Amino acid sequence: MTYASRLNSRLWEPVDNRPLIVFRILLGFLLFLECTNDMISGKVAELFINPAFTFPFIGFEWLQPLPGNGMYIYFSIMGLLGIMIMTGAFYRIVMAVFTVMWTIIYLMQKCDYNNHYYLMILVCLLMCFMPAHHRFAVGNVKKSNVCPRWVGWLFIIQFGIVYTFAAINKINAEWLSGRYMKYLMTGMDYSFLQERSVQLFLCYSGLLFDLLITPLLLYKRTRIFAFCMACVFHLFNAFIFNIGIFPFLSLSAMIFFFPETRVRRPVVDGKSKIGMYVMGTYLLIQLLLPVRYLLYGTDPNWTGEGFRMSWRMMLCNKSGWVYFRITDPDSGKTWIDEPENRLNYITLNSLVGLPDMIWQYAQRLKEECNKKGLPHVRIYVMSQVSLNGGKPQFLIDPNTDLAAVKWEPYRHSKWIVPLQ
After folding, report:
1. pLDDT confidence band for 126 (50 / 70 / 90)
2. Does 312 reside within a domain?
3. Which pLDDT value is given to residue 405?
C-alpha cells in the first residue's frame, strides 16, 4: 500500500463515537449559553440595536441588523437551536442553520471582535459533517456506536493550529516584555495582578502553555498532567478576563485527545479518498490564513491587516481619539465630524484603533454628503492612537483624502502610518 492509501485507511477506521457524542452535547449547551448571555448582558443591544449603524466586514454591508427587537428574536432562535443540537433533534439541519446564523452575526458587526467567535464558526462548520447524531439523539432512526477516526483527528489538528499560532504570535516585544499584560491589568480589582512578577509569570506561562499543550496532550505519559494544567489555565482566564465560552469550548474539545477504542477495520472506497482531499484542503487554508499578514509587510497588531482569523489572542489594546475633517471645495467650507456624537462606547472604542473601520466611517460620511448635494467632499482623519499604553501617534495619514481612497484587501494601505 502507498503512504496515501495507508493514511486513508487509517482515517476511515471506525472507532467508538462516545467522545463525539459528548462533545455534541457540550457544544449545544455552550452555544445556548453564549446566545443567552449575549442577550442578558446587553451585548445584543450594544452591538446591534443601540448603534446608529454597524460595521460589517467590507463586502457584506448588505447584512444589517433586524429592526426593533428583531435581533433578540434572532438570538433566541439560535439559543433554541443550541438546545436542539444538545439533544440531537433534527441534527444535520439544525447544525447547518445555526452555523449560517452565527456566521451572519460574525460578518454583520466587527466591533468587539473576539477570536472565539471565529472559532465557533469553524467548530460548527466541522460539526455539520460529523455523524454526531447516531447516539443519544432525540428522534434519530439510525443508531450507531462508531464514527471514523478522522473525526477526532480533525478536531485535534484544528485546536492544535489555534494553540500553536497563539504561541507563535506571542513571540514579540509587546508580550515578552510584559507591556501588554501590564496595560491589560491596569485598573483590575485584584491587587496581586498589579505585581510585576505576576504579570511576567502570566506572559511566559501563557506562551509556554499555548506552545506545549498540544504535544503534551498527544503524549500518553503527560496527557493527564496536561489536561489538569489546561483546566487551571482556562478556568483562570474565564474568571479573570471574562472571554465567553472559549475556555469551556477548548476544554470540551480535549476529549478528542484521549485514546479512542477501535471497533473494526474499514473498507476504503472512492468517496473516502475524496473526503481525505477535502480535509487536507480545509486544514491547508487554516494554516495559511494566520500567516497572510506577511503579504502586507506590516505589524498586524497595529495596522489590523491580516489580524482577524489569525489567532492573535490578547496581544494588543489600542486607545486614543479620532475625528474627521470634511472639506467641500465647491463652497470652500470645512467642518468637523466627531464620531462620539454618533456612536456608543463599544463601537467608538473599536473605531479608534481599526483602520478598516475608519475607512468605512469615512465612506459613510461621503455617502451622506452626496445625498445632501455635496458630491466633491474631501475627508481627512485626525487621530492619535496608543498601542498597549505606548506613546500616542498618528494611525492614519492626516493628508490622505479617504473619500477618494478605494479599499484594496490584498495590498497594504499606504495611508496607514507605520508604528514608530
Report:
1. very high
2. yes
3. 94
Is residue 416 one of the residues assigned to a domain?
Answer: no
pLDDT in tens, 72-85: 999 999 999 999 99
214-261 residue pLDDT tens: 999 999 999 999 999 999 999 999 988 878 899 999 999 999 999 876
Q: Is there a single domain that holds both residue 108 and residue 59?
A: yes
Burial of 205 (0-12, 13-18, 19+ CB in 10 A): middle
Tens of pLDDT along 250-291? 999 999 999 876 565 554 455 567 878 889 999 999 999 999
Q: Do 304 and 366 belong together in one domain?
A: no
As for how many domains the chain has, the answer is: 3
**Residue by residue, what is the 3-state secondary structure of the chain?**
CCHHHHHHHHHCCEEECHHHHHHHHHHHHHHHHHHHHHHHCCHHHHHHHCCCCCCCCCCCCCCCCCCCCHHHHHHHHHHHHHHHHHHCCCHHHHHHHHHHHHHHHHHHCCCCCCHHHHHHHHHHHHHCCCCCCCCCCCCCCCCCCEEECHHHHHHHHHHHHHHHHHHHHCCCHHHHCCHHHHHHHCCCCCHHHHCHHHHHHHHHHHHHHHHHHHHHHHCHHHHHHHHHHHHHHHHHHHHHHCCCCHHHHHHHHHHHHCCCCECCCCCCCHHHHHHHHHHHHHHHHHHHHHHHHHHCCCCHHHHCCCCCCCCCCCCCCEEEEEEEEEEECCCCEEEEECHHHCCCHHHHHHHHHCHHHHHHHHHHHHHHHHHCCCCCCEEEEEEEEEECCCCCECCECCCCCHHHCCCCCCCCCCCECCCC
3-state secondary structure of 214: helix
Q: Is residue 110 part of a domain?
A: yes
Residues 180 and 282 in one domain: yes
Q: What is the span of the domain harbouring residue 83?
A: 18-144
Cut 0.90: pTM above it: yes
Please identify, among 110, 144, 178, the residue that sits at the C-terminal boundary of a domain.
144
Residue 47, SS3 per DSSP: helix
